Amino acid sequence: PDKVKVVCTPAARIEFICDDKDCGKAILGDGLIEAEYTVSRGERFIRAEVTDADGLMAWSNVVDFDELYR
Fold it and tell me: I want to staple 16 with a disulfide (CB 3.0 to 4.6 A). Which of 26, 37, 39, 64 is the partner?
């Protein structure tokens, strides 16, 4: 319950974005196909953005932890 994992087609960047200004994590590389983020206490939501080598972007829906753990 404290990890979020993204599995995708080959990407150059996978970024996790959450509600806290100090949170977030970007993983850079060639041909990334997965990444994992450990959720910190107090974070309320997270989403992921995936960018391929050509700059095309995809993103996930927001995962709302308040909704998930009610």
Answer: 37
Ordered per-residue pLDDT tens for the chain, 70 residues: 688 999 999 999 999 998 877 777 899 999 999 999 988 878 889 999 999 999 999 999 998 887 666 5
The first and second tokens of residue 55, run together, are 């700059």
AA letter at 39: V
Residue of 46, 51, 19 lying closest to 36 (CA atoms) = 46
Amino acid (1-letter code) at residue 21: K
Predicted model pTM:
0.85
CB 39 within 8 A of CB 65: yes
Q: Tokens for 9?
A: 């087609």
In angstroms, the CA 57 to CA 14 distance is 10
